[in-house]
Amino acid sequence: MWAHLPGTNEAFERRVAEWAAGFSPSGQAIPLVLRGDEGTAVLAGVVAALFPEAGSAVLPAGQVAPLVLRLRELGLIREYQARAVLLALSAPYGRGILDIAMGGGKTLLAISLAAVAAALGRPRWLYLVQNRELADQTLRALGKDSGPILEALGGPALDFQATTYAGVKKLDSRRFDGVLVDECHALAPPTRCLPYAMVKAHWHIGMSGTPLDRQDEKNALTIGLLGPVLLSIDVAKLEEEGFLARGKVKVVRYSRRARRVVGGGEMG
Questions:
Q1: Domain 56-240 grouped into CATH 3.40.50.300
Q2: What separation in angstroms does the CA of 166 have from each of 27, 80, 116, 159, 256?
């Protein structure tokens, strides 16, 4: 999925800059990558980072930090979740990936991130998940966990929706303040990245429980659409900080030789 722009690298870069104000991968039927005659390529996600609505997503860390600190001091979120919220909401161009291992509380992190943004005037958030069961699970967690968080932040209104990639087409509106992509390492296939591309938002934040270590073009596309990894918390870190019990391995040795009793004695 390439769009070809003829001319020199200089001309290519100039045209990309000229198009920045009106180009977005969130528009339907827009290619994901621009490529010039001399080999220069620009991922659409990078181009999208240049136009005004993406630039306006950046919130100064000084505005985000006091709210995040309040949630942390009240014990509503963990220390690394607080760091993740701060990094995501102040990330350049509102793009980035939070690499959090399984058991790290990604759903609570998503709710906290959206709630802090709501307290700063950006209340509309979409959470993209892989199936309907996960979407329902997220909404149940929202009902249970969002109350204390929103109360701690002064009671801002929060419009938080969770849906599948197939459900994007059924949304009343595809404009949000931010979109959170769960299991974002699996975003690259067209059945996912194209519905994702329909969503217009200031923030595009991915979350993954699997390290982004594929080192192939699909990984590059995911990073191109969502930005760089902002924070990595692996299982060892969660164990070290006491959030996960340390795993134990027990080796059981056994023999596969069958034994049977013959005439009062045993034969192997």
A1: yes
A2: 17, 32, 28, 20, 49
